[in-house]
Design a protein that fits this description.
130 residues
Length: 130
């Protein structure tokens, strides 16, 4: 038998077996997909994932609510008591420091320090006391 005869013969045993194998695999996969055990596992998995999703959503909402309360509390404390008080104390402290600095500079400008004269001539190094 030549190769041309084999290829022209569409009902060869090899082709029939390959076709049958494909049909059997498809039937097996359909049977496995439709089996009750797989459907039960799918329902259980969906249920677990829905519970996880609900839990994460609730936790996220609780954290967001807590964050919002903390931010509101901080803003309220800043606005009502501590914020303006702290700013006022900083302003007073800064003004007092600048006032003292200005007084010191004014006094220095009015009374410049006397030029110090060295008791030793510039050519002689100072001697150490013994």
């Amino acid at each position: 038998m030549s190769t041309e005869q084999n290829s022209s013969n569409s009902n060869s045993p090899l082709e029939r077996e390959i076709r049958q194998l494909g049909e059997n695999i498809a039937t097996l996969l359909r049977t496995m997909w439709d089996c009750e055990e797989r459907k039960s596992l799918e329902r259980e998995l969906v249920s677990v994932l829905e519970n996880v999703n609900r839990t994460i959503t609730q936790a996220t909402e609780q954290l967001q609510a807590r964050r919002d309360r903390v931010v509101n509390t901080i803003n309220e404390v800043w606005r009502t008591a501590h914020g303006p008080q702290i700013v006022r104390e900083i302003e007073l402290g800064l003004a007092d420091t600048l006032h003292k600095l200005n007084e010191a500079l004014r006094a220095r400008a009015q009374n410049p320090p006397a030029q110090e004269t060295s008791p030793h001539p510039a050519d002689e190094p100072p001697t150490k006391p013994e």
